[in-house]
Amino acid sequence: MRKNGIPHSARPFSDKRWKLPLFASFLVSVTLFLAVAFGLFSSPSAGDPLSLDFISYARLEDSSDYFVESDIKSSWDPDVDSRVEAPRIAYLISGTKGDAQRIRRTLQAVYHPRNQYILHLDFEAPPRERIELATSIKTDPTFREVENVRVMAKSNLVTYKGPTMIASTLQAVAILLKESANWDWFINLSASDYPLVTQDDLLHVFSNLSRDLNFIEHTEIVGWKLNQRAKPIIIDPGLYLSKKFNVFWTSQRRPLPTSFKLFTGSAWVMLTRSFLEFCIWGWDNLPRTLLMYFTNFISSPESYFHTVICNTEQFLNTTVNHDLHYIAWDNPPKQHPRYLTVKDFNKMVESGAVFARKFSKDDPVLDKIDRELLGRSEGQFARGAWCIGSSDGGSDPCSLRGDDSVFRHGPGAERLQGLLQKLLAEDPHRNGCLLRVEPTNLTVH
């Protein structure tokens, strides 16, 4: 008599159709293991995943052996001496509608073949202006040969009182970290900034400084500022809309944080690569936590980096309380920088600052700075030892490049040296984020 039930229950393993998939799976697994072990697959970065985010005129570096933990270890290994050669600086120069020519002028004034540059026109600038800027960079023979200038093609909508400016800055830093391992400091500038010293002056003086110093103006937020800055909650429309609007306040208020102290200061900074790796790679949770906190914080560009660095034990003793800018504030109430003119020229020079802001477009004082401080003619680069061509007939001597590790410093280096000597000798306890750096004996040779 035939029993009812599952027909194959008596011989569950008699079907041999499972053997072929099992063998194929085993073969694939072995192949993958051998590929990983012997490096048969190339790095995914070789395909340039950021090609849709920016227009790059630099070759992508081979990052197949790049692993973040190895960089973290080398950053903190005191036995590693990677500071033999002269420093290199990475610049972000940003602007908005109508700023393309101003960005290019500032770029020429701060250009040096050793450095890296990334240019950003925000979303308010029309596509034609952005394309014209990118085209002018691409067709410039020096930029095309050196390949150290990039124009971000995917623009961000930037509301300067909200977190969108921080987001744009961090995006630029991430691109610079991916694209080049050869820079020591990062500087952010706007189209209304302009240098007061040549890059030869700057690089020469900073060759004598520790590469661990972060130049960031900062002070702890206390008293009435806590109620006006920390407790309100703002919304930045730039995070959600495609048209710029002013930030607006919600009716809710939040308590003060207890796990970190709040700091504020200038939005213009000169930060070390190691600190920015800490902010971008995120092996500690603090940068991410503060980034979320400052999403709804008024004027977050004046607080984010300041709060991160002053609440991190590894970096709080590396701060120099200055933004390296000369700024003349309105009086009263000293809340906004006023436009600089020829009347301010002597004070700018005497300050010893590296940069000044802010300037009106094509103000005559810029021509005076070019002529007397930078040795720059219209449409040309600021002079440096790397410029070995002839200036006959009005040609640009920088069209012919020499050794970019040689610097021809001048009076600007002496002024900057005096400012740094003063900053490093100041009382470290005068501000909340302590500075415990011994004064450095700077000598211009």
From TrEMBL:
Locations listed in the record: Membrane
Transmembrane segments: 20-41
UniProt-listed InterPro entries: GLCAT14A/B/C, Glyco_trans_14
Presence of the UniProt keyword Secreted in the record: no
Gene Ontology CC entries for this record: membrane
Keywords: Glycoprotein, Glycosyltransferase, Membrane, Transferase, Transmembrane, Transmembrane helix
The name this protein goes by in its record: Uncharacterized protein
The organism of origin for this protein: Protea cynaroides
Membrane topology per record: Single-pass type II membrane protein
GO molecular function list: glucuronosyltransferase activity
